[in-house]
Amino acid sequence: MRDRGWRVLAGVRREGSAPQGTEEVLVDVTDPPALELSELNGLVNNAGVAVAGPLEFLPADELRRQLEVNVVGQLRMTQLCLPALRRARGRVVNMGSISGLNALPLLGAYAMSKFALEAMTDALRVELAPWSIHVAIVEPGTIKTPIWTRERPQPSPEALELYGPRIDAFRKLAVKRGTAGAPPEDVADAVEHVLTAQKPRTRYLVGRDAKLRARVERLPDRLRDRVIVRRVLGA
Question: CB under 8 Å to 35, separation ≥6 — which residues?
Fold first, then answer.
């Protein structure tokens, strides 16, 4: 959007990490500061973390962190920006995931947060329609970013004893798909369309695997589960 001449406020957690050509704003969505904005044409809720591992051994604090960043923080930022968005009849873009439609094993906590973001988007879209504030959600699949090569916390010995082979299979698949994922520019294009199109859509599936996984969700549950186990866990 900066290339279109927009004034872009980039919310970041670390000083100096905003993209060139944007105005840096230090923001922690779990404890956002008061915002002094007269008008705002668009808000992109892009903050997020991904907690992985079997739900059986998911620490309560990790689930709280997952939901606090991916759901509560997104709503809080929207609430803070709504007066300025209302004055400009602006638009809201929530960064969801295909995991908000298709929950994978060992990513249950992350999927829970993205399913919640889908519900939040649907509710806000109707609630804010009287002020012509359009709300949309972008649902990427695997995107080619460094997230897939980062070190993850080691599961507990108990989790490894019960889920070790499945965890290994899932990690190998994540790395493989990450290197072949859609480029980040595809997501940026979807966001730009929401913010600039005369009639933007309400949902944007991004990436070939996102579209495939969306179709898997239309299968009967038990058939769907067998497909997931075979394709994700290699069993």
Answer: 80, 81, 84
